[in-house]
Amino acid sequence: MITPDFELSQDPDFLTIIIRVPYARVSELDLFFEGEDFKFYVKPYFLRLTLPGRVVENGREKASYDTEKGTFTIRLPKESPGQYFEGLDMLTSLLAPKKLRTAKPLVEEIGVPADLEEEEEEEFDWEIEQTLYKEAAESPLSLQCYYGFGNLRSGVFQRLQDELGDVIDVKDPDRTPTDERKMKRLEAEAAKFDPDHYLADFFEDEAIQHILKYKPWWVDAHEKMMALQEESQSNDSHTSVAFSEEEREQLRKFTNKSYLLDKRSRHHVYLGLIDILLAYCYEICVNEGDKNVESSWNVRKLSATLCWLECFTSIHDVLVSFGRRVVCYPLYRHFGLVTRAFNDTVMILQLGRAAVLKCLLDIHRIFRESDPAYILNDLFITDYCIWIQKVKSKKLAALSESLQKTTLAKSHLGFELEELEAAAVLVLEEESKLTAAGMVSRQQLPSSESETSDSEESSSTSSSETEGSDSNERESSTAEDRKINSLQDLLQEERTAPLIDCNGLRQGTNASTFEVSDEKSKASLQSPSVPGKLIEELEKQMHTAMRLSEQPEGLASASGFALQEREENHISEPARFPKVTTGKGDFLEVPSKTNPLLLFCSTNEDED
Fold it and tell me: I want to staple 251 with a disulfide (CB 3.0 to 4.6 A). Which of 12, 91, 200, 440 is the partner?
């Protein structure tokens, strides 16, 4: 038999059921409804529903068939007009048989009459429930490690370890207890946290701020619900969430199940639901409602329930785990995205189970199209999709209220984010100060360069002036040297002139002539002969030439002192004059030749 496509709607007096049965034999229609039971059969389609409210057959019921669309429209009167039937969009729950709507264990009756057993065997039981394959009992250690929805599964990863190694982060979950999973998760998150990545998203958050402006579908739905509550002054306003054709088809394919959950398991299921919704809200916000190849990775990586098979004990633990994983793993690691996902999850829970179911169906489709993440549908999402349809709206309202009261701060995540941000702000302030100082120095650089050029020009000018003065000095000194040289030449001529004696004959230059006594020398200098007057005149000219010359201070003073001393010595002791050697640094060097004047004077004395 084929389960047809169907949908339910209502008004205050009637329940309307639309059933699509293309290519069906309308002549073989069989319809039954009474109380909460509804059965529809037309070959090859069969539909059995357990209604959320009671209907009655009172003559106002009506059915019609559209041949072009192949749809039956059935209107059933409500037993209590004005009653609101809750959960008409929970198609999987409506398909559940009546006797399995509760999770209470079935009671087996002993001693049933044989004729009743035969009658039951004659009819085909459409309500037979199939069970999944379970392996034989394993070691005691592996039996203690359960996971999945309500911790009802074990041994799954032993059979599929090769395929599922990339789906979850915990290694060998069948032999890893819950406490050990949590410890390893915290260690992995601490090793993965990157301060540089976090600070980059913290300071350069233009893309993140753009993402935070995106509004998914539940934002508008929540605003409408709040507006209706303000108008009606009641919290019981019903907000309809529309399901697409694909989502309805997905609900029809689910096999209805009942779950035997104790109080602790139910607690884990509710907290796991919050964790999964937080990861889903992050994914929708970051990608702005679009799906990509990273969607499956984002949802399962940010949810510790899916990635580490975590079993939480409080709502605060859920928020801390989600916040830690947001700042460690995805592309955008910003605490603002944690807050946004938190607020979105609160809105979804306040909208009721229809909104929660719509989100779970979207997660189911994401995992179904991702290989090998599909196994997470079998472990968690499919069971959540079936289970949520039977959850009372008051439970979800209480859950959303508890979540809204829970607070999460950066200090709770354990990564010292506030201290890290404060240190980074100080570094930026120091860098800004250094940058400002660099700008000021760059602005002052052109003026300093101009000053430097000016100083260079002035220095070049001064150097040129100095060079000019040096050249002038050199010219003047050259001129003076020429003058002195002329005087020296004159002196030399006068020295060479007495080489011709009074008789017109050339005198000899024997070395014996140098041996002159001091007394004769003094006498010759004091004699009023012509050579003595010539020497006095030359000495006066030499004094004048030395005054005109400009020498360096040290050299001039030294040479002047030497010359003065030598002049004094020359006047007082003319006999020592030829003993002065060259290389003394004196201004006027006396050659090592024989002094003819002395010879001439001494000769005259001898003659006298």
Answer: 91
β-pair partners for 50 = 37
Beta pairing class for 30-42 and 45-55: antiparallel
- What are the tokens at 100? 């399995």
How buried is 236 (Cβ within 10 angstroms: 0-12 exposed, 13-18 middle, 19+ buried)?
Answer: exposed
pLDDT tens-digit map of 128-184: 344 443 444 444 444 568 889 998 888 877 766 666 667 888 888 888 888 899 999
Q: Please indicate, yes or no, whether the overall pTM of this predicted structure exceeds 0.90.
A: no
> Residue 17 contacts by C-beta under 8 Å, 6 or more apart in sequence?
6, 7, 8, 38, 40, 49, 72, 73, 74, 76
Measured between alpha carbons, how far is 451 from 89 in angstroms, rounded to an integer? 85
Type and span of the H or E element at 63: strand 62-66
Provide the angle, in degrees to the nearest 10, between the axes of the packed helices 263-286 and 353-368.
70
Given a contact cutoff of 8 angstroms between Cβ atoms, the answer to whether 544 and 593 are in contact is no
What residue type is assigned to position 240 of the chain? S
Most confident residue range from 236-240, 324-328, 521-525, 577-581: 324-328
Encoded tokens for 47: 């539909």
Q: Is residue 6 a contact partner of residue 17, using CB atoms and an 8 Å limit?
A: yes
Terminal Cα-to-Cα distance of the chain (whole angstroms): 174
CB 52 within 8 A of CB 113: no
pLDDT score, position 193 = 95
Cα-only R_g, the chain: 59
- As a whole number of angstroms, the distance between CA 508 and CA 448 comes to 77
Model pLDDT for residues 343-355, shown as the tens digit of each residue: 999 999 999 999 9
Q: Which contacts qualify for 208-217: CB closer than 8 Å, 24 or more apart?
A: 208/332, 208/334, 208/336, 208/337, 211/285, 211/286, 211/288, 211/332, 211/337, 212/285, 212/336, 212/337, 212/340, 214/285, 214/288, 214/289, 216/281, 216/284, 216/285, 216/289, 216/344, 217/289
Strands 14-20 and 71-77: antiparallel
Cβ partners under 8 Å of residue 550, min gap 6:
473, 476, 477, 480, 556
pLDDT digits (tens, 9 = 90+) for 523-533: 344 444 444 55
Give the helix ranges, DSSP H, for 204-327.
Answer: 206-212, 217-232, 245-253, 263-286, 295-302, 304-307, 315-326
pLDDT of residue 21: 87
* Contact criterion met (CB below 8 Å) for 36 and 53: yes
Q: Is the dihedral of CA 96, 99, 101, 107 positive or negative?
A: negative
- Give the tokens for residue 474: 């050199």
Q: Which helix (H) or strand (E) holds 578?
A: none
Q: Is 158 helix (H, G, I), strand (E, B) or coil?
A: helix
SS in 3 state form for 219-252? HHHHHHHHHHHHHHCCCCCCCCCCCCHHHHHHHH
Q: What is the DSSP string of 9-60?
A: EE-SSEEEEEEE-TT--GGG-EEEEEEEEEEEEETTEEEEEEEEEEE--SS-
